[in-house]
Design goal:
168 residues; alpha+beta; five-stranded mixed beta sheet; two-stranded antiparallel ribbon; 28% helix
């Protein structure tokens, strides 16, 4: 892909991901292993925070979505860590002439509590994106026991990202 042309030097992207909670799998959120009796089901590590962020970056850069680049039916992506997947997405965006300015993430879950892991997650994401942890917004909210998220059947995440054009 070529670098951005005469269009805007800034682009915004949004992403969403959701996975079912199941027994027998570790829980990864934001690249960190979280202590919880259930993990997220998926072809990869099912890290909803990093998957939502990857989709936001790909969308802002005009590069499609993670399913297009990392099809869940392909064995080579089985078990891939969300941090590795996000690193590959950051490289694709860079090749297309974009870098991340900041991101804002929201975790939707009844449990676990995110507070004990917040600093480590912001550090990890900042390192992958090449930005300061202060440029990584991270919040969590419940679904007030409504719907599948509220019944603790799964966890979802929303992400918004701002990209800026970089010189070729």
């Amino acid at each position: 892909m070529s670098a951005p042309g005469a269009g805007p030097a800034l682009r915004v992207g949004c992403g969403y991901d959701v996975h079912r909670l199941v027994a027998g799998r570790p829980l990864f959120l934001g690249g960190e292993r979280i202590e919880h009796p259930l993990g997220l089901e998926g072809h990869s590590d099912a890290d909803v925070l990093l998957h939502a962020l990857a989709d936001a970056i790909l969308g802002a850069a005009g590069l499609g979505d993670i399913g297009q680049h990392f099809p869940p039916g392909e064995e080579r992506w089985r078990g891939i860590a969300g941090a590795d997947l996000l690193g590959r997405v950051v490289a694709l965006a860079r090749q297309a002439g974009w870098r991340t300015v900041n991101c804002d993430l929201t975790l939707l879950a009844e449990a676990p509590r995110l507070a004990p892991y917040r600093a480590a997650i912001r550090e990890r994401i900042g390192a992958i994106l090449g930005i300061e942890p202060a440029a990584v917004g991270l919040k969590a909210t419940t679904h007030e026991r409504l719907g599948t998220i509220g019944r603790s059947e799964g966890i979802a995440a929303l992400a918004v990202v701002l990209l800026t054009a970089v010189a070729p």
